[in-house]
Amino acid sequence: MIHNSLDPKMKYSTAWTGFLTQGLCWAWIVVPYDPSSPLERIVRDIQQAIKVKLYYPALLVALTIPDICMGLTLNKSDFVKKNHYIEFINRYTTEQSLGLDGTSCYQLRGGLVHRADLRGHAYFDNTHVIFTVPESRGHIHALTLVVEDKRAAMFDLELFCQAMIGAARKWYEDHKNDPMVVENLKNLIRWCPEGLPPFVGGLPVVASGA
């Protein structure tokens, strides 16, 4: 049995692409972006991880995009909190594109980041979470399946990550001139092909620090 409104915090629809042609389609939302943005380094890592089938790292980084963006607006001594995360999701994504609202996404993140268990948050009301992937030959996104006493929240990994990437790009356009963001972006994790002087020179590293 398929339900489409089981949880007041999560609203579901179905989206297919690829092999379905009976009038159903999914349109990618193109968000204009600045390719020179330091956030694009993180975006490229998500995209590359999907390309080489490293789906766990792709989801892990995608789910922390709200933490990264909201953290860039804060002093180092301040912490990103639940309300920051939810605010980001609700402002820069939609339930249709991402597949869930800010509160539910925060719970999804908590389960994966802290337990490597997508349904592991105490208040996430599903027994299973399933992501379709490129090998699935179709996109099933923002759907709940109920079988007896089991509930599976279903998302498409590419659509989910694309929604998070679009959110990051929209957020950057809104905040790229914020002095705190400009300063904090200098310390964003990055690939340094020639090292990081004065500590390391002549060999590639991944590093943070201006």
Describe it.
This protein has helices spanning 39-51, 55-63, 65-71, 82-92, 95-98, 102-115, 157-175, 179-185, and strands spanning 2-3, 128-132, 143-147, 150-156, 190-192, 195-196, 200-201, 205-207. The protein is built from 8 helices and 8 strands; from the N terminus they run βααααααβββααββββ. The chain has one domain. 40% of the residues lie in helices and 14% in strands. The protein is of the alpha+beta class and 210 residues long. The strands form 3 sheets. It has a 4-stranded mixed beta sheet with strand order 1-3-4-2. It has a two-stranded antiparallel ribbon with strand order 5-8. A two-stranded antiparallel ribbon has the order 6-7.
- The oligomerization state is single chain
**Unreliable parts:** 1-25
Number of domains: 1
Q: In what order do the strands lie side by side in the largest sheet? A: 1-3-4-2
Q: Specify the overall morphology.
A: globular
- Radius of gyration from the CA trace? 18 Å
Q: Mean pLDDT, as a whole number? A: 87
Largest sheet: 4 strands, mixed
Helix content: 40-55%
The fraction of residues assigned to DSSP E strands is 5-15%
Query: How many separate helices?
Result: 8
Structural class: alpha+beta
How many β-strand runs?
8
Helix-strand pattern, N to C?
EHHHHHHEEEHHEEEE
Through-space gap between termini: 54 Å
